[in-house]
Specification:
Blueprint lengths: L8 H13 L5 H16 L3 H10 L4 H8 L4 H15 L6 H13 L4 H18 L1
Helix pairs in contact: 2-4, 3-4, 5-7, 6-7
Length: 128
């Protein structure tokens, strides 16, 4: 990005080195905070977070480390909660399909999205 503004590569390297030295440039911290925020604020799944971090140029190892902090049970619970918030009931195949597609768009793995829809369907029917 700085190169597009005709800044010399030696200057860019020096500034990046200075930022690294004082701790202001930390991709691992960025990936961790981005992951926490997207999960909490936007309720994204791991796949969407990984795609977005990759698009932003974060190293794959750092992305994997940031994502490993949430167990599968917690991601499933978040997906079930999201479905419960968005869909009052899952009465038919069309509603279940809409809920599943919404979860996949948010970055939940297809199998996890299916499991979340089924779990919500069971939970919703026991409350009715």
């Amino acid at each position: 990005m700085l190169e597009r503004r005709d800044i010399a590569s030696a200057t860019i390297e020096a500034v990046v080195a200075d930022l690294l030295e004082v701790g202001l440039l930390d991709d691992a911290r960025y990936a961790r905070i981005f992951t926490e925020d997207r999960r909490r604020l936007d309720r994204w799944g791991a796949e969407r977070i990984a795609r977005d971090l990759d698009r932003r140029g974060v190293d794959a190892d750092l992305v994997a480390a940031a994502l490993e902090g949430q167990p599968a049970e917690a991601e499933l619970a978040a997906a079930v909660s999201l479905v419960a918030d968005r869909f009052a009931s899952l009465l038919d195949d069309r509603e279940r399909d809409r809920a599943w597609r919404m979860l996949v768009r948010r970055g939940y793995a297809p199998a996890l999205a299916y499991e979340a829809v089924r779990a919500r369907e069971r939970d919703g029917s026991s409350r009715a």
